[in-house]
Amino acid sequence: MSVLDRFRLEGRRAFITGGSRGLGREMALALADVGADIVLVGREKDALEATCGEVRERGRQGTALVGDVGVPAECERVCQAALEQYGPFDILINNVGGRRINVPLADQSLEQWQQILDLNLTSTFLCMKHIGGAMVARGTGGRVINVASISGLIANRGIGGRSYETSKAAVIHLTRAAAADWAPHRITVNAICPGGFMTAPNVRWANEYPDVIEQFREQIPMGDLGQPEDLGPMAVYLASDAARYVTGAAFVIDGGYTVW
User: Fold this and answer.
1) Catalytic residue at 164?
2) What pLDDT, in 10s, does the model give residues 184-223?
3) Catalytic site residue from 164, 209, 237, 245
4) Which H, E and C letters describe 198-246, residue by residue?
């Protein structure tokens, strides 16, 4: 087997949350490029179907499931439907998430706090419980990739809403703990920690808070924000046999932002 063959994913099926655009879309297309079939979850049917169409153009199966995994009951419904209709799954990518609010900690309501934790952390837990739990029960191994953030390692400058940093830090530690639990089942659990990427939400942030985004950009040694396609190769690696011996790791992709 050549080195490149170890990255192939033929015969494997991936479940990806927040898969219709941005980082989720690029990871879905990257996995499809190397042979995986994809089930995408998101809130907007048209955007999901568009990405599924791109998956099919690559010769793979692309299936859309509409649902808001940031709402716990909806997340459980979607996971159960996916397992019943399209399972089993070999790869789980918990990509959905976001900051959404810019509210100082002292002014943040309990409802706002809980919404962001549900979006970033509870959705990850529930998908791991259901989709990952089915991998454990199946007994043939698997791959779990949690999209955290460098915000789980640092506090961002000039932005309120520390529920985001808190939830992403928790995702990183959930990744480590689950990696220890599931290693005997040949399931690897790893995290990707993106820095500043020009996804649709960040484009919105750039319009609303240009000074914050520009300050962030100036602190990146490589001089610019990342593009969504920069994450695809890492997702392929972690989903593949090339990463057979990698688990409990958090991979930073940030153009060097966190080196100083």
Assistant:
1) yes
2) 999 999 999 999 887 776 677 677 778 877 888 889 999 9
3) 164
4) CCHHHHHHHHHCHHHHHHHHHCCCCCCCECHHHCHHHHHHHHCHHHCCC
